[in-house]
Design brief:
The chain has 692 residues and is α/β, with parallel strands linked by helices. The chain has 24 helices and 22 strands. Among the domains are: 154 residues, Glycosidases (TIM Barrel, Alpha-Beta Barrel), CATH 3.20.20.80; 70 residues, Maltooligosyl trehalose synthase, domain 2 (2-Layer Sandwich), CATH 3.30.1590.10; 111 residues, no CATH class; 86 residues, Arc Repressor Mutant, subunit A (Orthogonal Bundle), CATH 1.10.10. A hairpin with a 3-residue loop joins strand 8 and strand 9. It comes from Lentzea fradiae.
């Protein structure tokens, strides 16, 4: 079936089922979407709101409507010309589940013992499930212990530090077939593969998957700013965090007002993760290192993983990243570790250290450092680089052209279920880079009245409040609770500081009625809308297959999950779309209808097909405020740095248009080269050749 023209991501939950998805299919078709892109649809833990905790991969999830509901949904999508893209989880399953229960009952004699990645050297599975004051209960094949022992003594591989998510050995042919047979029978257009870095051999997995699936295949791989997917992977690209970094970055003004030493914070956070929550994984790897005292091996393993410049290497591919980590490591035992890994890049030691390095990086960087280094949180995004302030227009063009030539079917995204904050929050926060003195003065004034006692959380709190404004007390309180505990500075999920927790919980009620907060949020709202429209149009028309995360066709000021899984008002969106289809040109206002107009028109154009990539450059006094490119018979024009632009205006700035007559499909007007005229109604324009 090939790749869809675009996707629309929905989060299946017990309150948004297969039937609900079928019910919005006609709206998605009218919007211009190419395929519905759903969160995991296999049977998951009861009540799960995300579906990544799969309990039975052999059937569609009953809570969502089961097999009959899935079939009915898929038939409805097909009827309307929409494809289906499914998110699958090859790395882990939630425990307990029937397979796991059999292992606990029968031990290594269980049919499913090989399904899970268990270290059987002790002869029993360690289950860290008991309260701190509980006594151990011993079984022939497993032992239940204090939950705190999990991070240091766990003897089965897991997903990050979540002991309830046990890793499975999908590299085993029997396990692969058992976990993939059902979903591969559905005949879907595309698959999104979750967390490939946890697999023993990602390249081998994708080659095996390709033997059974010839549709669109994208992978949730977090790339460094200068990293590319391994060439040997037979996939269409990533799920788009690299594109997110580029698209959002080009709307951020370069400034040193928020400068700091991110890498020092990141290194300390990674070291803390390796020395605490992932000790069990480090120790299991260290036991494989030969001719080195055990404690020395532990230090060497942790040090190398902490120093990784990317999430993981894929030896022998990506050897340069392994080499970089080794060179940065000073432990004497690193040499022995390096020699053993190089001697057998497919051996157990090399495999396990690669599987685990991504865990150290993700937990250390995304889930710790991004909550500690809070100088300018618009850049603190999955796959982001807080030390790279803004992206020059010319670099954006180079990267977009490279994507078009190398991975034209890679997914692109601005918001996902995993983003730290939604695209519209980041767009508003980008404005702060244009007015750093104003913002820092505001923050200083507010700190005198309502400052939190922990400085990094304090800065995160003020930016989050402004970025997500207006926000309810409950939403903000839940977010700050998560942020403070992920940061692990004054409190954490494991070791609480009750006094500090109470201070954080009380903060939202103190600040939400503060007039200065509302006034500053109002100051950055309109330029934030301009950035939102610009980055959305760019994402939807640039190279790649764009995804629209549920609800973000209107303004969406969500923070990290579960805030971004709140119900979507599709009745409102239908009503606004009907008005737009009738010719209504909405104002750029709080309704967000202008964003719906941009999304609708861009997706409709996208369905006709876009090809090639040609950078276009404006001429005149305000030329730096334009990002423009041509793809075949379509031209995208977006305003950037709107606050600075407002101070001087477009003046004589023009965008020379190549060839014949052009029409702006957003307004229906003939396109003018004079940017003051072209962008007088909206801060963006979408031009097509001829009359429309």
């Amino acid at each position: 079936m090939g790749a869809p023209s675009s996707t629309y991501r929905v989060q299946f939950t017990p309150s948004f089922t297969f039937a609900d998805a079928a019910g919005i299919a006609d709206y998605l078709a009218r919007l211009g979407v190419g395929a519905l892109y759903g969160s995991p649809m296999l049977d998951a833990r009861e009540g799960s709101t995300h579906g990544y905790d799969v309990v039975d991969p052999t059937r569609a999830r009953p809570e969502l409507g089961g097999e009959a509901g899935r079939v009915a949904m898929q038939e409805r999508l097909t009827e309307l010309g929409l494809g289906l893209v499914v998110d699958i989880v090859p790395n882990h399953m939630v425990v307990p589940n029937p397979w796991w229960d059999d292992v606990l009952e029968h031990g290594q004699e269980s049919k499913y013992a090989r399904y899970f990645d268990i270290d059987w050297s002790s002869g029993k599975v360690l289950l860290p499930v008991l309260a701190e004051d509980a006594e151990d209960e011993v079984h022939e094949h497993h032992v239940k212990v204090n939950w705190r022992r999990g991070n240091t003594e766990l003897n089965y591989r897991r997903f990050f530090d979540i002991t309830e998510l046990a890793a499975i050995r999908v590299e085993d042919q029997e396990v692969f077939e058992a976990t993939h047979r059902e979903v591969l029978s559905w005949g879907v257009q595309g698959l999104r593969i979750d967390h490939p870095d946890g697999l023993a051999d990602p390249g081998g997995y994708f080659r095996k998957l390709r033997e059974h699936f010839d549709g669109w295949l994208v992978v949730e791989k977090i790339l460094g700013p200068d990293e590319q997917l391994p060439q040997s992977w037979p996939v269409d690209g990533t799920t788009g965090y690299d594109a997110l970094r580029e698209v959002c970055g080009v709307f951020v003004a370069p400034t040193d007002a928020f400068a700091g030493d991110f890498h020092a914070v990141e290194h300390a956070a990674r070291q803390q993760v390796a020395d605490s929550i992932l000790v069990a994984e480090v120790r299991r790897i260290a036991r494989l290192v030969r001719d080195v005292p055990f404690e020395d091996a532990c230090r060497a393993v942790a040090e190398v993983m902490v120093n990784f410049p990317v999430y993981r290497s894929y030896l022998p591919e990506g050897a340069r990243y392994w080499e970089a980590a080794v060179k940065l490591s000073s432990s004497p035992a690193v040499r022995a570790l390096d020699e053993q890994v190089r001697a057998d890049p497919h051996g157990e030691l090399a495999t396990r250290i690669q599987q685990t390095s991504g865990m150290v990086v993700a937990k250390g960087t995304e889930d710790t450092a991004f909550y500690r280094y809070t100088n300018f949180v618009a850049l603190n995004e999955v796959g982001g680089s807080p030390d790279r302030f803004g992206l020059p227009v010319e670099e954006f063009h180079q990267r977009a052209a490279r994507r078009e030539s190398g991975e034209p079917l890679a997914m692109t995204a601005l918001s996902t279920h995993d983003t730290k904050r939604s695209e519209d929050v980041r767009a508003r926060l980008a404005v702060l880079a244009e007015i750093p003195d104003e913002y820092l003065a505001f923050e200083s004034e507010m700190n005198e009245k309502h400052g939190l006692s922990e400085p990094t959380l304090n800065r995160l709190a003020w930016q989050s409040l402004v970025g997500a404004w207006p926000i309810t007390e409950d939403r903000l309180a839940q977010y700050l609770e998560k942020a403070s505990r992920e940061a692990k500075v004054r409190t954490s999920w494991v070791d609480r500081d009750e006094e500090f927790d109470a201070e954080v919980a009380a903060w939202p009620a103190q600040v939400l009625d503060e007039p200065a907060v509302a006034a500053f949020a109002e100051r950055v709202t309109a330029p934030g809308w301009s950035n939102s429209l610009g980055q959305k149009l760019v994402q939807l028309t640039a190279p790649g297959v764009p995804d629209v995360y549920q609800g973000t066709e209107l303004w969406d000021f969500s923070l990290v999950d579960p805030d971004n899984r709140r119900p979507v008002d599709y009745d409102l969106r239908r009503e606004l779309l009907e008005r737009i289809e009738s010719g209504w040109l909405p104002e750029v206002d709080e309704s967000g209808a202008a964003k719906l107009l941009v999304v609708h028109k861009a997706l409709q154009v996208r369905k006709r097909g876009l090809h090639g990539y040609r950078a276009l450059r404006a001429e005149g006094a305000a030329a730096e405020h334009v990002l423009a490119f041509q793809r075949g018979g379509v031209i995208t024009v977006a305003t950037r740095l709107p606050v600075t632009l407002a101070r001087k205006g477009w003046q004589d700035t023009v965008l020379p248009l190549p060839g014949a007559k052009w029409t702006d499909v957003l307004t229906g007007r003939p396109a003018a080269e004079d940017l003051a005229s072209l962008l007088d109604r909206y801060p963006v324009a979408l031009l097509v050749q001829g009359d429309q």
